[in-house]
From TrEMBL:
It is a multi-pass membrane protein. It comes from Seongchinamella unica. The lineage of its organism: Bacteria, Pseudomonadati, Pseudomonadota, Gammaproteobacteria, Cellvibrionales. The chain crosses the membrane at residues 24-57, 69-89, 95-113, 125-143, 200-220, 227-245, 257-274, 286-303. The modification FMN phosphoryl threonine is found at residue 174. It is found in: Cell inner membrane. One of its GO terms (cellular component) is plasma membrane. This is Ion-translocating oxidoreductase complex subunit D.
Amino acid sequence: MALMRITSPHAHGPMTTSRVMQNVLLATVPGIIVLTHFFGFGVLVNIAWASILALGFEALALRLRKRPLGFYLGDYSALVTAVLLGIALPPYSPWWLIAVGIAAAILLAKHLYGGMGYNPFNPAMVGYVVLLISFPVQMTSWAPPRGTGELPGLLEALQACFTPASFDGVTMATPLDVLKQNNSLLLEDLWQQNVQFGRWAGLGWEWANLAFLAGGLWLLYQRIYTWHAPVAMLTTLTLMSALFYDGGSSASGGSPLFHLLSGATMLGAFFIITDPVSSAVSNRGRLVFGGLIGILVYLIRVFGNYPDAVAFAVLIMNLAAPFIDQYTQPRTYGHASNRSDG
């Protein structure tokens, strides 16, 4: 009997790169809506301007590399980078700040290494860290979570972006910033004296994190990625914050619920560390990758210089991902070890 000469891969389906990216973009919508509700239209202006710049820089890089524009622009990867970075930036950021971040993400972190599929670091997080290190004042100037009714409207948001010198906006520190700087008040008193603190982790922030959690769970349902990295990150972050939580003294690093629902926790767990290019590839590797990110997020938040540490933790572990892959490869059929020398 003649055997069919069919080589791997044997499974075929409709889930292309562009389809995956479209699903990721769709999953960010609940979080974007919540952020816009609490922090105003500056969130939407950030995302729109970042998307225009990302497509422009992507087209420029493709033209310089002599690659077909339509094919590569149609995979939506540049838009995903733009949306994630636009979400992470403070609302009402000036146009030049967003431009620098997008240029670093698309040109340096992505195309300098060969384009999509070759970048060792998450492009959006590279852009964010470049901005945070270079422009710390602008990157820590968040609008107060007052809701769209009390915050600047769409025209004012456009004015803040493109003519920032003529815009006089009110900003305040995030809950992570306030907790980081606190050295005298009990957490209960700190909550009462700062209007930006909500019920658990910061007014607006807790609901945004829940919205990104919902979007991430939908991506899991769609099998865009596996559960290993997000669950490992959230588990270790919970364990670390529970282990070091002292009940709310002035030296407290915050409760587990505070760390889970503040800053970019859920955005990082479900939209950043699940990047298939810059993360570990095996399921065991993803568990290690996500778990170490959760530990680093807590350590940098509490003991480091930057309150929200997701970007730094991700980039550190992006660097370690090849090492993790080397020691977590699945055993090949017929071999007792996954090591090449075994």
